[in-house]
Structure of Homoserine dehydrogenase:
Amino acid sequence: MANALRLGVAGLGTVGASVIRLLGEHGDALARKNGRAVEVTAVSARDRTRDRGIDLSGLTFFTDPIELAQSDEIDVFVELIGGDNGPAESSVRAALSAGKHVVTANKALLAKHGVDLAELAEDNGVCLNYEAAIAGGIPIVKTLRESLSGNAVTRIYGIMNGTCNYILTRMEKEGISFEDCLADAQRLGYAEADPTFDIEGNDTAHKLAVLTSLAFGTKISADDIYLEGITSITTADIQAADELGYRIKLLGVAQKTDTGIEQRVHPTMVPKQSAIAQVDGVLNAVAVDGDFVGGLVLVGPGAGGDATASSVVSDIADLARGDVTPVLGMPAKDLADYTRARMRLHEGGYYIRFTVQDRAGAFAEIAKAMGNKDISLQSIVQRHRGDADRADAKSVILITHETTEVAVREALDEIAETGVISGVPQMIRIERLS
Amino acid sequence: MANALRLGVAGLGTVGASVIRLLGEHGDALARKNGRAVEVTAVSARDRTRDRGIDLSGLTFFTDPIELAQSDEIDVFVELIGGDNGPAESSVRAALSAGKHVVTANKALLAKHGVDLAELAEDNGVCLNYEAAIAGGIPIVKTLRESLSGNAVTRIYGIMNGTCNYILTRMEKEGISFEDCLADAQRLGYAEADPTFDIEGNDTAHKLAVLTSLAFGTKISADDIYLEGITSITTADIQAADELGYRIKLLGVAQKTDTGIEQRVHPTMVPKQSAIAQVDGVLNAVAVDGDFVGGLVLVGPGAGGDATASSVVSDIADLARGDVTPVLGMPAKDLADYTRARMRLHEGGYYIRFTVQDRAGAFAEIAKAMGNKDISLQSIVQRHRGDADRADAKSVILITHETTEVAVREALDEIAETGVISGVPQMIRIERLS
């Protein structure tokens, strides 16, 4: 058997500790499977003395991850520090430049510097693997880079943020408001003290940006993602969705269109009977539509130390076997430029909820504006607001047939001008799924 | 770039034609991704002249697949002939012995000769890849061999036969009898003229046998699978399942127990809200429980020329990149012997439907027998048979708490002896899923 593949683990948080524990428990089996042993020889962390529940005896300890990255004691640098700059970025660059393979769970780093790092890895003849960076334990990177490499992908979409999915699921199952769910999620550790990054969709966007590149062979372009979080979703929307045969999920979607590639993160109505609609709580799911495979859906844990460690170790196993895959599915220099499809050209169905004054003609004005923009309606629901202060305020809910974003936006502007509605209408895009 | 990887495709049915078409359409992209071109240089089929809608000009044509397997014109033998012996087996053996890699979609061959062929491949230093053999377009082989290699798998289960799932789905959605659904499935091409192999579970068993080996590192043991088909399932069972919060699916399940590994294929009640319960029609799904990843579910097309070709080409791409994975996840000589866990020791919940005469004391007899075997009941439903000839016949449906197969079987024997029931009770196992 070849010499052991020597790992340096930078960052000893939950995931780092799980990785070391996994390799301790299953190291022998892995060596048999890969034909090569794997051993952690060195680690880095800020605090040398903290008890992490793992045995670090015999391992060289660095406080500077860059020193670890350049150490002669390691063949693979495992970056579990996090963050899109600072020590994570500099140590990954140092490792690649020193001819070390890198395994990382850092989505923010990849979303920002992925193409650049891929070129650096390829110039140095080493691998940069990151299965754990996207959807935790779900093997979506390998599925795209390897299993679906014979397909032209037409769309990739998924539930990639457990915090949002937990909140939306509880709002649906228990009829609790967004604010109360968020507070509960924070109490249970499913949401950060500052939850902005999750609930506004940025976290999903980071993952989507990398998946878009893998799926379509384009450069990563995280800044070109249309972004809408879940803070405006009410229990009224969720109930209406239920009655109309939908569930509301925060999806990240990348889709090929005639004018480029749409990348969008927004609350989405998905048909109840679709696989993605059944993904509840903190679970994640990623779905791919390809020209030969048809549709594939992967469901699993999107976070957690152990599940993430499973993916980190899968990347390490590939290195132990000597499997070399281009970082972004094809050599970074061959990636096409990303062409953004404008959101105003987005085509799809829409759910729109208006609060109207209970006066004759309000609905006629709405219908007229829709008609002016050639938007045809599939369903119309009218009802009194259960939660309104004013008994004379009604909800009017429309489901449109396939139309365009610009038509909907212009119709909403026209309706606002008539003065028949109160407040800002709620607008949720419907995703067509089989 | 290295010399092109030369393929010989044996068998030009639906899948073979799709593979050739896929390589024609996406060959350039694949070469960029893999760093090596792939080209079909030769094919074999029985009939040279048939129009298959693909261009075979320039390809060497063999009528004998063994000659193709041994040809100097190929590096990889792609076996798409089918069958667990005859030309498929002999040509695969010939190819491996001649030092050619083999890619196959042949589950029957692997279920019967997998370990033997794995040893032959490994002795000759070549690969035997078979992503397409199990669940069509779903990348479950790669997921088990590579993505989950750091996990101890505790259970693997799935819906792996589209014919059965199509029939069960239509029975549920439309209330049609098994016989009518089967006839429709045959008319639509979803079921064979002789459907036995599908509806009795043999096809699922072949796939399960290979997955068990991959999941648990044991030798393939297809003859040790407990087998029960779907022919006894009635619309009454499906309706009762629905009322009790379940759906009925034909599952293949392999599970680690204290006494060995259970392998079983049988109709199964799965909780409605589980991911697997939502898999309808001809779709397949495979789920894996692992100690680090937790639970993972993959849903996709289990058959069809194009979806299967997607998996065949994924195997070819691995060869083009030079990725070498042991055939059954670890070297065949290291596989452990398979120890069968006896079905009578199976633990789980049970659904039992009796037809009883409408006389006092019948239910007391049933309850007494259950109590004698320490079987506690979770739900009891009693109702008149809607479909009975005799208005005095009632259905009694029980859902048990966790118990053992032997206890249930002995209780049913005891109940039969009392004479309070008519016919054979229906017994469907419940799978505990999160």
